[in-house]
Specification:
33% strand, globular, binds 2-acetamido-2-deoxy-beta-D-glucopyranose, two-stranded antiparallel sheet, alpha+beta
């Protein structure tokens, strides 16, 4: 690839959308700002002091399943989740997963959100059919949300929609507060000691999001490089 100051100059004056499809964050895309705390349905699961106790990698179990995301102005996020995964081959083996992690987020110009974990996240797996039925393990996956929208519902107020790395929608989350309720935005747990008691069951967890992010970043870089080479030819 030829890269000279002239090309740099041309690149600088070209609008950014020639290289990437930028999202316009207007009130049609998001009726309000994403900062604050959001929670699904009953709002029984919420980020902050009522859910996770990182110092001893434990949880205050909510009464029902759900998820909650918080986003702060200083670009920190926190996620709290409690869900059941059913097993099609073995309907009796419903796995409960309760998880917490925090870190920093990016609102990418193309409309995606990337959550980069801080390294102190963890999750507890309850699997009635496994040899070790209840264990805690570290959770430090980078998560990509392909897009997001915020609508205003006449009865429920502001509603955040997140779409997963593959485009599938998460259940809508409603605004709990405009100021994020989060645990301190710093490392809250020493992860040098492993909290895991079973290695066999770990393979059940999907680990694809990390790989997904890095491969698409590579693709984006390649596309960017080709655009620059083309420009060099034109000049
Ligand atoms: C939509 O989100 C963007 C990016 O965070 C923000 O700058 C903008 O103010 C939001 N729009 C509204 C209507 O709040
Ligand atoms: C973790 O710490 C909290 C608060 O200090 C305590 O109430 C809880 O029993 C502890 N849990 C475990 C599993 O040690
Ligand atoms: C479902 O249950 C079967 C049999 O116990 C097990 O082999 C399989 O790994 C389970 N699948 C998931 C996704 O948990
Ligand atoms: C957690 O993931 C982040 C982002 O990939 C990485 O920078 C960090 O080193 C990881 N921390 C641990 C403890 O694995
Ligand atoms: C936005 O860019 C990131 C890389 O920065 C990429 O992983 C993601 O797939 C892109 N999103 C869309 C909707 O193209």
């Amino acid at each position: 690839m030829i890269f000279n100051p002239l090309v740099a100059l041309v690149l600088a004056v070209l609008p950014a959308h020639i290289f990437a499809q930028d999202i316009v964050y207007d009130s049609i895309h998001n009726k309000t700002v994403i900062t604050g705390t959001w929670a699904t349905g009953s709002k029984a699961v919420q980020t902050g002091s009522g859910f996770a106790i990182p110092s001893n990698a434990s949880f205050i179990y909510p009464s029902v399943t759900g998820m909650s995301f918080s986003f702060a102005d200083n670009m920190w996020f926190e996620v709290a989740r409690y869900r059941f995964n059913s097993n099609a081959t073995n309907p009796g083996c419903i796995t409960g997963v309760v998880g917490w992690f925090h870190g920093t987020y990016d609102l990418v110009a193309n409309g995606s959100i990337i959550l980069t974990p801080n390294g102190d996240g963890y999750q507890q797996i309850q699997d009635p059919c496994a040899a070790t039925s209840n264990f805690v393990e570290n959770y430090n996956d980078t998560e990509l949300y392909q897009s997001w929208r915020i609508f205003e519902d006449t009865t429920d107020g502001f509603k955040l929609h997140l779409f997963e790395f593959d485009g599938s929608p998460l259940p809508p989350m409603f605004q709990v507060s405009t100021t994020p309720q989060m645990l301190p935005t710093e490392k809250l747990r020493d992860t040098t000691e492993s909290t895991t008691t079973s290695s066999r069951k770990r393979s059940l967890l999907r680990r694809s999001t990390n790989a997904g992010v890095s491969s698409t970043v590579c693709l984006a870089l390649t596309v960017g490089a080709s655009a620059m080479s083309l420009l060099a030819l034109v000049l």
